[in-house]
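Data availability (excerpt). The following record was deposited with the supplementary files.
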Amino acid sequence: MPRRSYDQYCAVARALDAVGDRWTLLIVRELLGGARRYTDLHTDLPGVSTDMLASRLKDMEREGLVTRRRLAPPGAAFVYELAPRGRELLPVLTALADWGAPALGDPRPTDAVRAHWFAVPLLTRLAAHFSDDPGTPGAPGAGVLDIVLDEGTFHVTLAGEGPAYGEGPAPQPDVSLRMSTATCVDVAYDHVSFAQALEAGRIEVTPGGEAGGAVSAGTRGEDGTS
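Predicted structure:
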């Protein structure tokens, strides 16, 4: 069945033809962290039906936003990943996250939460901090960082082609940053700066990832993590 179009000679309308359907941009959010199996996507998109997810993925393939490929043996499963056109939506999602932040408030009883959902807004804050202050205590010149929350772990890469994030811990992180979800929200949405959270002892810095020995992140030596 052909997709409906706004039929307007306008770049905004053309963009919404491609990404304006419900769930599309949330699928992009998930795939920004790397290739995912269909079952993984369904797990991390609570509320989407299997039929809706399958339909959206087909639409996104047709629009050139995602590609589907089979993993090499022994996995042999199919995974979805963003095409270059899909990855170009990172700044769009960053802007949407910033725009939606004032409406976030406290978590509602019905709200699902995943650690990596904070990655998109956090990327720009971390990139700005480590660019301006490469001498962060315990993390000089950090390019790959594990972010450890109560809900799980994801990693961000600041070097190379630009900020990006991935699911789970990095194979060889330069540093691990452990913080409460509340601290992550505060930093991601500019309630406090990353430097201020470090100074207040709300972020624990571990060189070399979680396996290394933790060092004081702030000058006061307090650990405000939960």
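Summary of structural features: The two ends are 50 Å apart (CA to CA).
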